Amino acid sequence: MTTVYYEKMPSPIGPLFLVADDEGLREVRFELERRPHTPLDGWVHSPGKLAEVRRQLEEYFAGERLTFDLLLKPLGTEFQQSVWQALTTIPYAVTTSYGQLSQQIDRPKASRAVGAANGCNPIPIIIPCHRVIGSNGTLTGFAGGLAAKQWLLAHELKCQGFALS
């Protein structure tokens, strides 16, 4: 049986709930989500197992880290995995649209399905789904709420030396 570890950490966009197993990080949950922030039976509170995840997230929030170097183990369908993999290629402080992402994964008519997979991303921030916006440039849904998405995008622009207008 797989041991699942968890840790809670504060962040500028609210508390985060980190979930991993020995194969890698499985989830980053926001307090705003419908899912509770309580561990399931058998989960082990292990700050040590999640110390590297926490350290890299803290560096990101401090503007000291542009990319993550973590073992990731998001659970999802083959299509979701392809979308999440494509999300990891979006550069820091750059945005893309669902349509552009669907083109990137060679599914040009699947922008709605790409949007649904983006919304199911279990490892936001690290798999940067916040960098996907509407084709008209508007912010679209985000598990942490639109204020968190706006904060993350503004933070990345600021850390790149730009000001958000």
Descriptive terms for the model:
single chain, 165 residues, alpha/beta, Double Stranded RNA Binding Domain, Arc Repressor Mutant, subunit A, 2 domains, 4-stranded mixed β-sheet, two-stranded parallel ribbon, 5 helices, 6 strands, 31% helix
CATH architecture of the largest domain: Orthogonal Bundle
Distance linking N and C termini: 51 Å
Task: State the CATH superfamily name of the largest domain.
Answer: Winged helix-like DNA-binding domain superfamily/Winged helix DNA-binding domain
Output the strand order for the largest sheet: 3-2-1-4
CATH top level of the largest domain is Mainly Alpha
Q: Round the mean pLDDT to the nearest integer and report it.
A: 90
Overall shape: globular
Residue stretches low in confidence (pLDDT < 50, at least 5 long) are: none
Q: Pairing-aware structural class of the strands and helices?
A: alpha/beta
Brief characterization of the structure:
The protein is α/β, with parallel strands linked by helices and 165 residues long. 31% of the residues lie in helices and 15% in strands.
